[in-house]
Amino acid sequence: MPDNEQKEQPRRRQARGERRIAQLLDAAATVFTTTGYTAASTNAIAREAGVSPGTLYQFFPNKEAIAIELGGRLVHEMQTAYGEALAPVDPATPLEEAVGAAVDRFIAFNCRHPVFFALMHGPDIPGRLTEEHDALHVALVGRVEGLLSSILPEAPVADIKRTAQMVLGIYMAGLELVLAHEGAERDAYIREVKTALTRYLDPLLGDRLGRPGLTTTP
Fold first, then answer.
1. Are 180 and 111 in contact (CB under 8 A)?
2. Which of 2, 38, 121, 214 has its CA 20 to 30 A from that of 61?
C-alpha cells in the first residue's frame, strides 16, 4: 500500500471518531436538558444518538465522562462569548444599549445551548464541572468588576464587588425564567431582564454612559 494511503487511513478513522463523539455529545445535550443529569442514563443517550450502548462505551465509560467533556467544551465557548459581551464600553454608548448588547450575547449562548444551564446549575453534577463553573463565575465577576471600575474609577472596591455580584445575580435569576419560556413570552422575559439591569445600574452609571440618567420615551 502506498505511503500516502497508509497515512490517510488513521486520519479517516480519527475523523470518523470525532464525528461520532460530536453525535454522542449532541444526544447527551438533548437528554440532559430534557431529563436532567441525575435521571439521564447512557442507554438513553445511546438511544437518542441512534447507536448501541456498546458504541457509546467505545468513547465514554459513563455519563459523568460525557457530561465533563460536554461541559468543558461549553465552558470554553462561554468564555469566548463573555469575552465579547463584556468588552470595554464606549462612554458614548447609552446604558440601556450597553446592557442590551451584553444580555443579548449571553442569552443567545444559553438559548443555543440550554444544556449549559441544566448541567451547571442542576443537582448532583460532577465535581469537575462544579469546579469549572465556579472558576467561570469568578472570571465573570472579575470582568464585570473591571468594566464597572473603568466607568467608576473613584468607587470603593467593596462597592464595585457588591454591584458586580448583584448584576450577575439579577441576570442569572432572569435567565432561568427566559429558558423556561419560548416564543413571544421568552422575548418578553428577555426585555424584563434588560429593564431590571438597566434600572438597577442607572443610579450608578446613568450619568457616565450616553446621557444623564434614565429617560422614558413617551
1. no
2. 121
Neighbours of 147 (CB within 10 A): 20
Residue 20 has which C-alpha cell? 461520532
**pTM score, two decimals?**
0.78
CATH topology of domain 63-218: Tetracycline Repressor; domain 2 (1.10.357)
Instruction: Tell me the pLDDT band of 60, cut-offs 50, 70 and 90.
Output: very high
- Per-residue pLDDT reduced to its tens digit, 77-99: 888 877 777 777 788 889 999 99
Amino acid at 115: V
| Angle of the 183-205 helix axis to the 95-112 helix axis, nearest 10 | 140
In angstroms, rounded to a whole number, what is the distance separating the alpha carbons of residues 162 and 198? 16
Going from N- to C-terminal start, the domains of the chain cover 1-61, 63-218
Span 1-61 CATH architecture: Orthogonal Bundle (1.10)
Integer Cα distance of 88 and 58 in angstroms: 45
Q: Indicate if the pLDDT at residue 168 is higher than 60.
A: yes
CB 39 within 8 A of CB 97: no
pLDDT at site 4:
52
